[in-house]
Amino acid sequence: MKKKVLITGGCGYIGSQIALEMLRGDKFEPVSIDNFCNSSSTIPDQVQNLTGKRYKNYNINLLASEALRVVFEEHEFYGLIHLAALKSIPQSLKYPLKYYENNIISLTNVLKYCHEFKVPKLVFSSSCSVYGAEAEFPVDEQSPVADRQASSYSNTKKIGEEIVRDFSAG
Length: 170
Ligand SMILES: NC(=O)c1ccc[n+]([C@@H]2O[C@H](COP(=O)([O-])OP(=O)(O)OC[C@H]3O[C@@H](n4cnc5c(N)ncnc54)[C@H](O)[C@@H]3O)[C@@H](O)[C@H]2O)c1
Known about the structure:
This protein is of the alpha/beta class. Helices cover 45% and strands 14% of the residues. It contains six helices and five strands; from the N terminus they run βαβαβαβααβα. It has helices at 13-24, 43-51, 65-74, 89-94, 96-116, 152-169; strands at 3-8, 28-33, 56-58, 79-82, 121-124. Strand 1 (3-8), helix 1 and strand 2 (28-33) form a beta-alpha-beta unit. The longest helix has 21 residues, at 96-116. The protein is globular and about 45 Å long. The chain binds nicotinamide-adenine-dinucleotide.
């Protein structure tokens, strides 16, 4: 029996590839939430053309907490891969609040239901931009995160890492 994995942003660049690989394998069944704010609603069709299999996408904004709850009620998830975020550095400098709201509230909404519905596994997609331009390369998990982030985008990822760390420890 395949384990269900919820992919937020499952119709985006990375999420659609993960869904495709899961459909080709025999271990995981992808379920996606994506509101197509940076992707196309034709993505599940395109993945179906490549794999012969289809994955379900819920066209839900992750900021809509009650709509999100329904997805957790309908499925028993083994894991969650949280990819959904706005990711343009220049846009984040122009519209910081939009980035903080989308990337941070989406994350806390998702974590709230991971906790309530006891989802065992979580992957959070951060960004190497958190290490800053001055970092010594190559960076790894031990590399220090920059104190002062260069963009609101990378700051949402830094804050996101801290939220996930506290959530995991709680
Ligand atoms: N692509 C890269 O090279 C790269 C590098 C480092 C980190 N990341 C991170 O990986 C993740 C995925 O990146 P990507 O390149 O696939 O981005 P992407 O924009 O292609 O995919 C993100 C998806 O999330 C969806 N989304 C965003 N906000 C949403 C919301 N509130 N509700 C529902 N759906 C929402 C978008 O419609 C989009 O389809 C992002 O968090 C990004 O910051 C990407």
